[in-house]
Write a structure and sequence with these properties.
Elements lengths: L2 H8 L18 H32 L2 H36 L16 H16 L3 H5 L2 H10 L6 H11 L10 H14 L3 H35 L6 H37 L5 H27 L7 H24 L3 H7 L9
Helix pairs in contact: 1-2, 1-11, 1-12, 2-3, 2-8, 2-10, 3-4, 3-11, 7-8, 7-10, 9-10, 11-12
Length: about 350
């Protein structure tokens, strides 16, 4: 989640987003690569982990406990932070575009970066709707077979094709597509307690990472360079057809890369981080708060830096580390030892402990 700070700090320096995001006079190829690479797998991995831990909570407690937990820890933050974003982000974006400050309250652009919470909430409501079918599903071999065909593979090609199909309707993005994000969620849900597969990821995470990086590079080349090679060699009609064809072919490549890298990262961390670490615990707990509150901060800092003639990479790093510092400090002082911290983390820590 904290990588959201990196992505939103990068956007002003990535060409192609000028229509909906204030842009710095100078773009950066290096920052653009960082943005597109992280964007490829970050949210797929998030929804895979969300599904995994949903199953963990249901198994350790009950479905009703999971339902209550999700309504409280997702629904209430939506109610709290939605008005904050509606008050802060519109005038900050206006400041970025016109260098003017005019405080306004508007729904334009909502839900902003909070879209992933709405997707998780949709999954909760859908699970309530299909709950009466649970007994039928548990006693039907068809659904068990369907689960194995779609999800339980070391390279789930059926799942990749399904996700690729669904994202065609949202321009290849997940933000407006709870159908696609639900498939990533169900993938994580199906992985829980599959010890054979988790052990396989632990022993083969390097292979997943290497192949995932290769596939992702192919996607990025197709996405950003191949079309440009023909830009001045074909008439407009043929160029548009070629663009559509490349885009269509590129979607399963993108999904494949996102799943392979996600599996590689899960295997990496499962193999390397197997002991309690207080700093890791603190950073992990702070991530939810940092993501919820970071967008106005990183945008205001990034847009303010437009007026300075610094290298884009310097501005990028300033925006990242300034936002990290402010969000970590506010988490430590105002959140971790308060009821808000209890809401976000499920625990209220004594102030002196990290």
């Amino acid at each position: 989640m904290v990588l959201g700070i990196v992505l939103h700090a990068a956007l002003p320096f990535v060409s192609g987003f000028e229509r909906f995001w204030p842009s710095d006079p100078k773009s950066s190829s290096a920052i653009s690569f960082i943005f597109h690479f992280i964007h490829l797998w970050r949210m797929p991995l998030f929804f895979i982990l969300a599904g995994f831990f949903a199953k963990l909570l249901i198994e350790r407690k009950t479905w009703k406990k999971w339902l209550t937990n999700r309504l409280v820890r997702i629904g209430i933050p939506i109610l709290i932070f939605s008005p904050v974003m509606m008050v802060t982000l519109p005038w900050i974006y206006m400041y970025g575009w016109k260098n003017e400050i005019n405080i306004t309250f508007t729904l334009e652009g909502y839900p902003h970066h909070l879209w992933f919470l709405w997707h998780l909430l949709i999954f909760v409501f859908v699970s309530c709707a299909i709950r009466p079918l649970n007994i039928f599903i548990k006693n039907t071999h068809f659904f068990e077979l369907l689960n194995k065909i779609v999800f339980m593979h070391k390279l789930p090609m059926v799942l990749i094709l399904l996700i690729s199909f669904f994202i065609l309707f949202s321009g290849g993005e997940l933000i407006l597509n709870p159908f696609a994000t639900s498939l990533y969620f169900l993938l994580g849900y199906s992985i829980y307690k599959d010890l054979n597969f988790l052990n396989f990821l632990v022993f083969n995470w390097k292979k997943y990472m290497i192949i995932g990086l290769i596939v992702s590079c192919v996607f990025l080349i197709f996405e950003n360079h191949l079309y440009l090679d023909f830009q001045y060699k074909l008439p407009p009609q043929e160029l548009n057809e070629l663009h559509d064809l490349i885009w269509l072919i590129n979607q399963p490549i993108k999904v494949t890369g996102s799943i392979l890298i996600s599996f590689g990262l899960i295997g990496l961390f499962e193999s390397q981080i197997n002991q309690f670490n207080p700093i890791g615990r603190f950073l992990s707990d702070s991530a939810y708060w940092m993501y919820l509150i970071h967008l106005p901060i990183v945008n205001l800092i990034g847009f303010y830096l437009f007026q300075f003639s610094l290298l884009p990479e310097i501005k990028f790093l300033i925006a990242i580390f300034s936002t990290l510092f402010l969000t970590l400090i506010t988490y430590k002082v105002f959140v971790r030892s308060t009821y808000l911290g209890f809401l976000l983390n499920g625990k209220m820590y004594p102030f002196k402990k990290i």
